């Protein structure tokens, strides 16, 4: 009798366990049907890639990817430093900003012809753009101008670089009068014009650009305000602006990466899977760096709690119906890219890397 009871218990337990295992996938299947986004892992991966493309454009306030065909990368002195910084930050995902849209950090704006006098040598920067308006504020603006190499070597040669604020075509406020020697030709010179840029942003009608004068002994201009050939085009003057968002707050947190799975894992429940995004495969040559980054994605079932008999079982199950495996927290990525006006922008885009996944 004792033996028969033991056998009965074992058979009952095994049968009960079998029933629970068989009912589990059915429950998950029903749960997946109630959540259209919960599909196969391949579908989730494809959906995540498409979502990344749309999110980047939306957060950068773009309607379509910029067309940079024929655009030559300018020879900006600090560009390589920024590239190295983005590479380092891409390897170590940073904490996400509370702001949903991208917070611009640095803009490199290349000069253009003056709309008031296109044939003049005035250096002009269009500052009428959204990223320069409230709540963003320019806190640092450095103007860079390339000084051509003196053709006649003369160690004793010296002159002055004069920078005027262009009110009219040939007159304006003298901003800088810097002495220059022969050794300083063939190099970049820079000037802090933060207060001028801030005033131009507040009063766009006063923006008439800058006039720069520096001549050699024969009266030829050494200030590269208008490129004479393709080689000089890579040394066009530019404006380096650092921008912060007023009252912007960032929160740092210790990230719990939760359950991580390999791509071909047999795991059925909610888990974070690797996903390497390659912007070149998108055909996005407007992103200078990074060319690739680790985005990750969430996939898996969100099974209902145990079906053990309880007066509150139906209440608990109703609570968990329709739950999906989705990102619990995300991090931002750094990016150096061309915007729609062909400016080179360095900024952070929030919510682009999945830190961990959970059922919601």
Structure description:
The protein is an alpha+beta fold and 360 residues long. It folds into two domains: 37-67 and 75-94 and 257-303 and 322-359, Cystine Knot Cytokines, subunit B (Ribbon); 111-246, Jelly Rolls, CATH 2.60.120.970. Helices cover 25% and strands 28% of the residues. It contains seven helices and 14 strands. It has helices at 2-33, 41-59, 79-91, 194-202, 230-233, 279-282, 313-320, and strands at 103-110, 136-147, 158-166, 172-181, 187-192, 210-213, 238-245, 271-273, 276-278, 287-289, 292-294, 297-299, 325-338, 344-359. The strands form four sheets. It has a seven-stranded antiparallel sheet with strand order 5-2-7-1-14-13-10. Strands 4-3-6 form a three-stranded antiparallel sheet, with no helix packed on it. The protein has a two-stranded antiparallel sheet with strand order 8-12. It starts with a helix and ends with a strand. Residues 22-34 have a biased composition (Low complexity). Belongs to the TGF-beta family. InterPro entries: Cystine-knot_cytokine, TGF-b_C, TGF-b_propeptide, TGF-beta-rel, TGFb_CS.
